[in-house]
Design goal:
- It is a single chain.
- The protein is mostly helical and about 55 residues long.
- It has two helices and no strands.
- The longest helix is centred in the middle third of the chain and has 19 residues.
Length: about 55
């Protein structure tokens, strides 16, 4: 009988979210003020609508 509590403790989506959050925290800590929206977008990998073909 399989143990129902023997589950994988790695969630790839969660790991990506943690990495993005960590990158934002590091950038915010290094910044003298609020991060500009374009810098936040760059860190998160967001492509502006006008750059989408």
């Amino acid at each position: 009988m399989a143990d129902p509590f023997d589950v994988a403790l790695e969630d790839s989506d969660l790991l990506v979210e943690v990495e993005l959050t960590t990158n934002l925290i590091i950038a915010a800590t290094a910044s003298d003020g609020p991060l500009p929206l374009d810098e936040i977008d760059r860190i998160l990998g967001v492509v502006p609508d006008d750059d989408v073909a």
